[in-house]
Design a protein that fits this description.
This protein is mostly helical and about 200 residues long. It is built from 7 helices and no strands.
Length: about 200
């Protein structure tokens, strides 16, 4: 299961780079990942099916962490990752958004709400991992997870700030970039754990 999870963690970041080649005018720095799965996207079926499969793995794979580190923190991490998998991946895959923000319908609202909840839960995971690893005396992994949490929190703040009109002409407007960096920062400690344990 760990091998499958590491494949998902890597592919979650690489697949969008590949699919974007088949989506004219898609801009990685400015556009969210969800746009690849929007109803206007030429690669929507591939991206949305991938999201659903990835979400299922995020619901199941963290069980390996729970088996190794039985306890409250391990359960909490598993639950948070499952919520992320259901919200950001599975529901988003089944409810693709409408790329036109002025024409927001029910599916787009469901997608937005589920994604927001999923991202919020994912952000907490590196912090809980750091606490668990420090408690176990694994200082190096704890430090990596803590740095990952700090980076994740900063990039998420940039992502949220970039949505505000007053930051439209600043570097913060690159929401797609910040979203990707949030994912990479969160995935790093999980990927290292999969490889080293």
């Amino acid at each position: 299961m760990k091998i499958l999870w590491i494949i998902i963690l890597v592919a979650d970041n690489l697949l969008p780079l590949l699919l974007a080649h088949f989506y004219p005018n898609y801009k990685h720095k400015e556009m969210a990942l969800s746009v690849l799965g929007s109803r206007q996207s030429p690669v929507k079926w591939i991206y949305n099916v991938w999201c659903i499969l990835s979400g299922v793995v995020f619901c199941i794979a963290p069980y390996a962490l729970y088996q190794e580190k039985i306890g409250g923190l391990a359960i909490a991490i598993w639950i948070l990752l499952a919520i992320y998998g259901i919200g950001c991946e599975i529901i988003s895959g089944f409810c693709p958004l409408n790329e036109n923000r002025q024409d927001e319908d029910a599916l787009t609202k469901i997608h937005g709400g589920a994604s927001a909840i999923g991202f919020m839960t994912l952000i907490a995971v590196p912090l809980l991992l750091a606490i668990m690893q420090f408690q176990a005396g694994d200082i190096i992994m704890g430090a990596i997870s803590l740095v990952s949490f700090i980076a994740t929190f900063l990039f998420f703040c940039f992502f949220i700030m970039g949505e505000k009109e007053k930051f439209a002409n600043t570097i913060l407007r690159y929401g797609g970039l910040w979203q990707r960096l949030v994912l990479v920062s969160c995935y790093v400690p999980l990927a290292i754990w999969c490889v080293t344990k």
